[in-house]
Amino acid sequence: MRPAPFAFARPDGLADALSRLGADDDAMPIAGGQSLLVLLGLRLAGAETLVDVTRIPELCGAREADGAVVFGAATTHAMIEDGKVPDPSRGLMRRVAGRIAYRAVRNRGTIGGSLALSDPAADWCPVLIALGATYDIVSAGGARQVAAEDFADGAYSTVLEPGELIRSITVPVLQEGTRWGHAKHARKTGAFAESIAVVVKRPDGVRAALGATGSHAVLLPSVAEAVASGGDVAAAARADIAMADPDADAYRARCHLATILNAAREVCA
Amino acid sequence: MIDLSFTLNGAPVSQRVEDRTSLADLVREGHGLTGTHVGCEHGACGACTVLVDGEPARSCIVLAAMCEGRAVTTAEGLVDDPVMAELRRQFHDKHALQCGFCTPAMMISARDIIARHGAAAPATIRKELAGQICRCTGYAPIVAAIAAAGAALNPSSDAAAAAPHVAATAAGASDAS
Ligand SMILES: Cc1cc2nc3c(=O)[nH]c(=O)nc-3n(C[C@H](O)[C@H](O)[C@H](O)COP(=O)(O)OP(=O)(O)OC[C@H]3O[C@@H](n4cnc5c(N)ncnc54)[C@H](O)[C@@H]3O)c2cc1C
Ligand code: FES
Ligand code: FES
After folding, report:
1. CATH number of residue B148's parent domain
2. Which of A23, A107, A147, B119 would be B157's cystine partner, CB 3.0–4.6 Å?
3. Closest chain A CA to residue B17
4. How many structural domains are present in chain A?
5. Closest Cβ–Cβ partner in B20, B52, B132 for A3
6. Which ipTM was obtained for this model?
7. Do residues B68 and B97 both lie within one domain?
8. Residues B63-95 pLDDT 10s
9. Residue list, ligand 2 pocket, CB within 6 Å
């Protein structure tokens, strides 16, 4: 299995990468390559030029800033799993990172690549929505901020325009007294999920999100309300699942119900 | 074609490669290092696992061109590694291979499990091995071999204390060698 020929570009910094991506419609960023090289090999994707973003300083590492942690888009899952970067989430992000794929994939796969691909079953999408993250998107023309819940608009579809890069992901630090619950259901360790539910209960409000729907990860407003008020989470979950994943078959709907109840139980435990 | 300078099993290499060449093809076809096996070629089986800067990576979904300035280590480069020596002993002792297709990558992954978890419990080893496919053994002997190697290499750990027979076997084996 070989991808069709392409040129591999090692840009000299962020501006160079953005100008290459902006100038050429057939250029694509590549980070860990853990999804893109598979898609290119299977010839499900094609590119004339791959622009390596993993050595751009603005995309590497993470820093604490003003009540938040800013993750460079090329931060690997393994760096987050191992706590080599600051954790704003009281352990939630470390748990999630450690359950993505397998260690050899986590050593190379990046948080930004996962978001940009927007696989419906990707682990980071619902988690970053529940954490209230913001994505910093740059192009040769400027920068814009997009809230996590507004980023994906379908399966493998996001608001990213050609020539744009995710530069960083800003995650607010969870204050004292915040609790979280997270459940991933997959056929085997490291496999893509059949359902992912995340609930984050802050002193000032609850956010809940569901992943591995037929489309993209979304907020669960009724579940959040039920967790906040001590209401009937199962009834709220059924209502939200019907909105979040209308085409789910009976099996998938039960997976969603189970992960939502488990995540809610962990929050309230 | 693109220029590439990296270290392969400790030796500096500078060459030109086709941009789309995978690291797996580079080490196998370019350098004759056939201990890196290629099963699925799309990241699913783990047979092609090598170390890049000391960390396991699936060489079928790493481009050679990505390894500029990196240190790549294949099974051949770990012949004198003490953890690999213990793993070889235990894989042999516990019959942890049959056809051997998965074995070099299994051992590279096992070495990483021991580096990160020390004397890992069987449940941890099974979780960590989820991405390494073996079509022959049924995994039980592989898990036993890694547990034994981890315990032998971390003699003061709980796991070694809980399984003294394992540590004793390993010590006996190294006495004999
Ligand atoms: C066997 C296997 C199992 C897996 N299991 C899981 C799983 O259980 N859960 C899960 O979430 N993921 C899983 N993955 C996917 C993995 O998490 C990937 O690492 C991730 O989806 C893509 O990250 P990457 O850095 O490798 O991106 P790449 O493959 O390099 O790129 C993916 C896409 O994002 C674009 N891109 C990359 N970086 C940027 C950027 N900064 N800005 C804009 N666009 C960018 C690329 O152009 C490409 O379209 C699995 C992968 C494999 C091989
Ligand atoms: S050959 Fe690389 S993971 Fe299967
Ligand atoms: S020993 Fe044959 S695949 Fe593992």
Report:
1. 1.10.150.120
2. B119
3. A8
4. 3
5. B20
6. 0.94
7. no
8. 999 999 999 999 999 999 999 999 999 999 999
9. B 38-41, 43-48, 58, 60
